[in-house]
Amino acid sequence: MPNQPPRGDEPCCPPLSREPLTSDWAGDLARMFKALGDPVRLRMLSLIASHEGGECCVCDISPSFDLSQPTISHHLKVLREAGLLDCERRGTWVHYRVVPAALAQLSAVLSVESGLVATSSCAPAVTLEEVAS
């Protein structure tokens, strides 16, 4: 199976250490990682993900940043376009929530499967006592 986002009931993405990414999927992942490369956007995602109920009104996001409302809207738009956030308008306010599947893809693609790098010179040495415990 080529390394690409899961569809339907397929298991989540294989890690980078199992097989190379296709160029299409690398582009999709790069957009998500690029969106998270900005500290403000990373904080916004964290704020929304950790908010009670898993969603957050823009009125609760704005006071956490010393930024203008248009700048906050821009950052939220970048996160939405990268597929990391979803939103819903309720009256005059917009409520944002994290897209769990997007975070699962990012997490899965960066995970290291057990045993794949055990012999790497970068892997820490493990004693038999540690393995047994």
Structural notes for this entry:
It is elongated and about 45 Å long. It has 133 residues and is an alpha+beta fold. The protein contains 6 helices and 3 strands, in the order ααβααββαα. Residues 1-11 and 114-128 have low confidence and may be disordered. The protein has one domain: Arc Repressor Mutant, subunit A, CATH 1.10.10.10. Helix 2 packs across helix 4 (69-81). Strands 1-3-2 form a 3-stranded antiparallel β-sheet. It starts with 22 loop residues before the first helix and ends with a helix. 15% of the residues are buried.
Distinctive features:
single chain, 133 residues, alpha+beta, Arc Repressor Mutant, subunit A, 6 helices, elongated, disordered N terminus
Topology:
Layout: H1 23-36, H2 39-50, E1 55-57, H3 58-61, H4 69-81, E2 85-90, E3 93-98, H5 100-110, H6 128-132
Antiparallel strand pairs: 1-3, 2-3
Helix pairs in contact: 2-4
**CATH-defined architecture:** Orthogonal Bundle
| SSE succession | HHEHHEEHH
Q: How many helical stretches?
A: 6
- Shape label: elongated
Distance between the termini: 35 Å
CATH superfamily: Winged helix-like DNA-binding domain superfamily/Winged helix DNA-binding domain
The portion of residues assigned to helices is 40-55%
| CATH fold type | Arc Repressor Mutant, subunit A
Strand content: 5-15%
CATH class descriptor name: Mainly Alpha
User: What is the alpha-carbon Rg in Å?
Assistant: 19 Å
Please, how many domains?
1
Helix and strand content put the structural class at alpha+beta
**Mean pLDDT across all residues, rounded?**
79
Q: What is the tally of beta strands?
A: 3
